[in-house]
Amino acid sequence: MIKKPCKLPKGWRWVRLGEVLKTIECGKRPRGGVKHIKNGIPSLGAEHLTAEGGFNFNNIRFIPVEFFNNMRKGKIRLGDLLMVKDGATTGRVSIVDKNFPYTKAAVNEHIFILRPNSQICHSKYLFYVLRSPLSQHQIELSFHGAAQGGINQEIAEVLLIPLPSFNEQVKIVVKIEELLKRLQRIRILSTESINETNVLIQSCIDEIFSNIQPTGRFAEVITFKPRSGPSFLTNPNWNGIPVLMPSSVTGFGVDISKVEFGRGDEKINPKDFLQPGDILIARGNKPEQVGNAGVVPSEAKGWVCANLLMKLRVDEKKVDPYFCVYWLRTSYMRQYVKRNMIGSNPTIQKINQKIILNFPFPTNISLKRQKNIVSYLDELQAKITALKKHQEQTTAELNCLEQAILEKAFKGEL
After folding, report:
1. pLDDT in tens, 81-116
2. What is the chain's percent helix, strand, coil content, to nearest 5?
3. Can you give the pTM of this predicted structure?
4. Which residue has the higher pLDDT, 262 or 3?
5. How is 60-120 classified by DSSP, letter by letter?
6. Beta bridge partners of 228
7. Strand locations in 64-146, DSSP E?
8. Strands (E), 68-110
9. pLDDT, tens digit, for every residue of 210-269?
10. If residue 325 lies in a helix (H) or strand (E), which one and from where to where?
């Protein structure tokens, strides 16, 4: 006897997932893995399925053509649904529609292919059902195992879905997609708004500094030369000394939530302890993040920074450290850093102590004027941060609204 999750409209019925499928299967990879294979047939894994139900084909993997031809299971067809079967994104679903770019492709052992019986179940209807809170909750209950747990083929026998007539399924899909298109238009506007706020603060910084020219070198105002943080193992769950990670200055500023900890037996050079007012600079990272900087807040006193960050101290009788960070944010300095980065790997670039000491710097700006500039930009940054927070809340609300639409759709309430 099937335990029904909720009451359905007249003419609908609860069925097990397996009743609407032709097959549920997973694929495989050649022995030895596929990292060394540079071409062949695309092989999709969990990392290629997006939260929105589509695909991310960055870092696509391949299997040999002969291996693909010999596969009995795991070959992708138009209309298939792909579901992550284990790991952190277990239950994530994507649909292979007309926009799928490959005529031949396969899945690896971490993905289920769910192939609907098109005589009784519309593929997009099933796609939306499986993305709904109704199905995702059942998948969570079926999750088994520890850190790398997941679901198995028994999900087809335990997961219940609401099934109306085929014509009704088509109507529901049309209605859902109409509503989701409206949500997507709002999402695009929200994203554009967030991007515009980023452009706004950058434009304001560049405008203020447009009449300020470098008259010396950064070395002239530095009292503690740039020094890389110590190098030792860290973990978010250990209890040793707090270590600000490279991601703490991914933007400009210091995010103290991006912290890990040593084991507790580290021997730290006194020069490595952070003090409020110290400036941290990313010395090695993705090219667009090298040179990002922030001022150490009082909460991080006595901490250390990761090895890919450098700490320095300026003479606060001459310069405001926050003024220094705003200077480093100017387009002029971003271009300077870009021109002077070093490294053979184009995806990871670096700067060193010598490069930082030679940064152009406006040494002739009075401390009073610096503080006025910092006060103005801080106030503007606070307003923009509040606006971005509101925009992010809007995005979160839109995601909740999408789930609410799907929930109502499969209760017959749209």
Report:
1. 999 999 889 999 999 999 999 999 999 999 999 999
2. 40, 20, 40
3. 0.65
4. 262
5. -EEE-HHHHHH-SS-B--TT-EEEE-BSTTTT-EEE--TT---SS-EE-TTEEEEEE-TTT
6. 310
7. 81-84, 93-95, 106-107, 111-116
8. 81-84, 93-95, 106-107
9. 999 999 999 999 999 999 999 999 999 999 999 999 999 977 789 999 999 999 999 999
10. helix 321-329
Q: Which of 158, 132, 167 has the alpha carbon at shortest distance from 12?
A: 167
pLDDT category at 392 given cuts 50, 70, 90 is confident
Name the one residue in this structure whose structure tokens are 């994104």. Answer: 89
Is pLDDT larger for residue 388 or for residue 343?
A: 343
- Give dist(CA 173, CA 178) in Å, integer: 8
Residue whose pair of structure tokens reads 């209605």 in the numeric block: 175
| Closest by CA position to 253, among listed 307, 321, 352 | 321
How many of the other CB atoms lie within 10 Å of CB of 260? 17
Q: Between the CA of residue 365 and those of 211, 373, 381, what are the distances in Å?
A: 11, 11, 22
Task: Name the amino acid, one letter, at 72.
Answer: R
Top mean-pLDDT range of 47-51, 190-194, 246-250: 47-51
Amino acid found at 287: P
Cα separation, 51 vs 181, in Å, equals: 16
Amino acid at 220: E
Tell me the backbone φ, ψ of residue 138, rounded to 5 degrees.
Answer: -65, -35
Can you tell me the distance from the alpha carbon of 179 to that of 37, in angstroms, rounded to the nearest whole number?
42
Residue (of 285, 266, 275) closest to 224 by Cα position: 275
Burial label, 334 (beta-carbon count in 10 A; 0-12, 13-18, 19+): middle
CB 247 within 8 A of CB 256: no
CA 46 from centre of chain: 15
Rounded Cα gap, residues 305 and 398, in angstroms? 37
The dihedral over CA atoms of 275, 280, 283, 287, expressed in degrees to the nearest 10, equals: 160
